[in-house]
């Protein structure tokens, strides 16, 4: 039986993933009393919301949690799901995180000069709160899903595990972001016939001119570009990730090649009514746009190589291996022998349990580099919190360091002392 929950902590961290654990690491360095609440288990999302064949899209060397970089034998490999979970758990053990698993936070509100945190184990107060719960809270399935035929199996991509969980027949995957494309590939490699609804997500080469494209982009400083320096500004946070995979040692995902091999590609889904899909006439445009981004990345790398005088193998830009024919604008699900639908349509945020005025007009946390306008309230672990690497193992530790430094300075100012750092 574990010890009762203390009634007060200097800092409450909510979320036991890599962001919350990184915050705990830096809080310990500063000698700041804190607790980490995780409503499930450490690394829950990696453990339960990824399919069986899942592996990292970014190379292992980008796993750089604070003072705990990847130390395995394959820095340019791609860890499978079980190894990702083991990496996060090992970091938690090494850090000695004061985490309380199985404790759900149900409300955060103001309390005098600090905060009231209501949990499934009781209420505590805190001087500061760090929200380390990302922005992906509730699987998003459009209301149009109700128009699918009765008896069709429908799941969200976060619930997909493997092809065997789906009934025999053809499978419709809706959404061509990273998850949608990789799940479509997983089904395709298992010999299933896949219908894929293709959206506007861009794609990226896996390897180009002798190296992983991620290595080249890192050399170019792309992962260090801040949200304030990006041409799109804060709008970049809404961009879809490029699709590619680390599976099988890493490779491109080429939807045109899949089409040559029997995958059926469609334009965007605009509606489902009485078991019939309505599809947009934008497949060719979406494929062309994804390929344009792919070749744009190749061109960026070419310029870098030329400007720096780097000796590298020649590389060919992508040329389409397949072109769509007459678009299918309407498809009867049952007549097409589609027995299952996977909605790879992302997530929506749910901040309803945070009873504080910290959201902007769009419902997104208003912050600068994780520091909100509510004094003592912070957010970390979100895509493009500060840089492209913020939502990855690469930079989440640095974001946590900045946030905790800000928090420690605020505490020191209030107490009239100098913030101290302690070794972990």
UniProtKB/TrEMBL annotation:
Q: Which UniProt keywords apply?
A: Oxidoreductase
Report the InterPro entries cross-referenced here: Auxin_biosynth/cation_transpt, CHP04046_FMN-dependent, FAD/NAD-bd_sf
Query: Has keyword Hydrolase?
Result: no
One Pfam family name is: Pyr_redox_3
The name of this protein is: MSMEG_0569 family flavin-dependent oxidoreductase
């Amino acid at each position: 039986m574990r010890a009762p929950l203390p009634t007060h902590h200097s800092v409450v961290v909510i979320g036991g993933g890599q962001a919350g654990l990184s915050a705990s690491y830096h809080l310990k360095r500063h000698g700041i009393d804190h607790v980490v609440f995780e409503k499930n288990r450490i690394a829950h999302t990696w453990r339960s919301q990824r399919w069986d064949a899942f592996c990292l899209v970014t190379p292992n060397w980008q796993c750089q949690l604070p003072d705990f970089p990847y130390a395995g034998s394959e820095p340019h490999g791609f860890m499978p799901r079980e190894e990702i979970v083991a990496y996060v758990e090992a970091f938690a053990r090494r850090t000695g995180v004061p985490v309380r698993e199985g404790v759900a936070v149900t409300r955060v509100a103001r309390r005098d000069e600090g905060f009231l945190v209501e949990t499934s184990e009781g209420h505590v107060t805190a001087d500061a709160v760090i929200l380390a719960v990302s922005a992906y809270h509730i699987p998003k399935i459009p209301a149009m899903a109700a128009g699918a035929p009765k008896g069709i199996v429908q799941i969200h991509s976060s619930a997909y595990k493997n092809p065997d969980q789906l009934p025999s027949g053809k499978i419709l995957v809706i959404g061509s972001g990273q998850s949608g494309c990789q799940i479509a590939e997983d089904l395709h490699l298992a010999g299933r016939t896949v219908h894929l609804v293709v959206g506007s997500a861009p794609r990226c080469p896996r390897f180009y001119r002798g190296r992983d494209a991620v290595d080249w982009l890192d050399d170019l400083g792309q992962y260090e570009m801040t949200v304030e320096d990006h041409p799109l500004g804060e709008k970049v946070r809404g961009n879809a990730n490029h699709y590619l995979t680390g599976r099988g040692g890493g490779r491109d995902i080429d939807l045109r090649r899949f089409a040559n091999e029997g995958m059926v590609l469609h334009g965007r889904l605009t509606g489902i009514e009485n078991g019939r899909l309505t599809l947009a006439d934008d497949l060719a445009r979406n494929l062309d746009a994804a390929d344009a981004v792919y070749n744009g990345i190749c061109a960026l790398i070419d310029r870098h190589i030329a400007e720096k005088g780097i000796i590298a193998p020649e590389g060919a830009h992508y040329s389409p291996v397949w072109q769509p024919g007459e678009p299918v604008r309407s498809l009867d699900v049952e007549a097409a022998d589609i027995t299952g639908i996977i909605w790879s349509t992302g997530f929506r945020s749910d901040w309803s349990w945070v009873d504080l005025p910290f959201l902007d007009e769009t419902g997104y946390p208003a912050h600068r580099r994780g520091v909100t306008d509510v004094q003592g309230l912070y957010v970390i672990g979100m895509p493009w919190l500060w840089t492209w690497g913020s939502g990855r193992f690469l930079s989440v530790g640095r974001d946590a360091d900045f946030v905790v430094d800000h928090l420690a300075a605020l505490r020191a100012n209030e107490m009239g002392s100098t913030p101290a750092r302690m070794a972990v």
